[in-house]
């Protein structure tokens, strides 16, 4: 179990050369909430959430948790080895009696990196739903025990839930795919953020383009497209096509190709640069 101080979250536990390790290990004075968003299914939101969470969990002494905020059945819980059959809706039902980290741990599954996941794959006959109120309650209770809280935002999320995700987030990661359709969809994401009054968070967002091939083709990404994205956000990370990720299943940056691993470490470092320092 990870140790956490209530007054000052511990700095990184792993050594290593370079500024990136120092940035990744920066101390947190309060819980930091990261929302991974995207327009369509297949944009890589769940893969990005799991990979980013895994790097942060490995590099830091902090507890890191990812919650599936899909409106229906999300993919997050299907991409990890489940230690608990509980879902985020079960966590909501138990909120009145949750007091400690161990109370919450009964509702999470932990990956080899140390990242914990709160799944959302409810029984279709279950009348309960994850609405705005429930999402806010979940984030509040998680933020009390986890220095880093990630949200995997599902496709087709109701407007009120999306607004809650954006309102409660300290930082946004925009998931995208290469190709004209992917770039057009990403433009629409930034347009919607502006329309909802989140221009500042959009400018500070990091965009992650997943599945980029080096040779020309449908999954290639040219310099012009990257430059266009950089006009709308703080940074762009390109994750190369990796057959292990393309197959789906568990996501562990330690088991993918070196260039893929480097890309996710770059993403985690960029995210860590925006951790609050006061």
Tell me the strand order in the biggest sheet.
Answer: 3-4-2-5-1-6-7-8
What distance lies between the first and last C-alpha atoms, to the nearest angstrom?
Answer: 27 Å
Order of helices and strands: HEHEHHEEHEHEHHEHEHH
Proportion of β residues?
5-15%
| Rg, Å, rounded | 18 Å
Provide a quick synopsis of the model.
The protein is of the alpha/beta class. It has helices spanning about 20-25, 45-60, 90-95, 100-105, 130-145, 160-170, 180-195, 200-205, 225-230, 245, 260-270; strands at about 30-35, 65-70, 110, 115-120, 150, 170-175, 205-210, 235-240.
State the main characteristics.
eight-stranded mixed beta sheet, alpha/beta, 11 helices, 278 residues, disordered N terminus
Model description:
- With 278 residues, this protein is of the alpha/beta class.
- It has eleven helices and eight strands.
- An eight-stranded mixed β-sheet has the order 3-4-2-5-1-6-7-8, sandwiched between helices.
- α2 crosses α11 and α3 packs across α5.
- The chain is globular.
């Amino acid at each position: 179990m990870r140790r956490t101080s209530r007054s000052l979250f511990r700095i990184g536990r792993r050594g290593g050369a370079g500024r990136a390790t120092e940035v990744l290990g920066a101390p947190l004075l309060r819980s930091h909430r990261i929302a991974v968003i995207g327009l369509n299914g297949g944009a890589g939101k769940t893969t990005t959430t799991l990979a980013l969470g895994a790097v942060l969990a490995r590099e830091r002494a902090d507890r890191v948790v990812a919650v599936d905020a899909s409106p229906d059945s999300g993919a997050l819980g299907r991409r990890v080895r489940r230690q608990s059959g509980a879902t985020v809706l079960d966590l909501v039902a138990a909120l009145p009696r949750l007091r400690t980290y161990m109370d919450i741990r009964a509702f999470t599954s932990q990956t080899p990196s140390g990242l914990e996941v709160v799944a959302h794959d409810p029984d279709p006959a279950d009348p309960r739903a994850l609405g705005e109120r429930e999402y806010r309650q979940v984030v509040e209770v998680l933020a009390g025990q986890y220095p880093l809280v990630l949200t995997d935002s599902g496709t087709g999320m109701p407007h009120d839930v999306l607004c809650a995700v954006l309102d409660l987030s300290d930082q946004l990661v925009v998931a995208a795919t290469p190709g004209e359709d992917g770039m057009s969809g990403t433009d629409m994401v930034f347009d919607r953020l502006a329309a909802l009054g989140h221009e500042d968070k959009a400018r500070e967002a990091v965009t992650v383009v997943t599945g980029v091939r080096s040779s020309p083709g449908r999954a290639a990404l040219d310099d012009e497209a990257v430059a266009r994205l950089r006009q709308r956000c703080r940074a762009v990370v390109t994750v190369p096509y990796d057959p292990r990720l393309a197959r789906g299943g568990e996501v562990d940056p330690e088991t993918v190709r070196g260039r893929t691993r480097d890309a996710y470490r770059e993403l985690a470092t960029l995210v860590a640069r925006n951790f609050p320092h006061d």
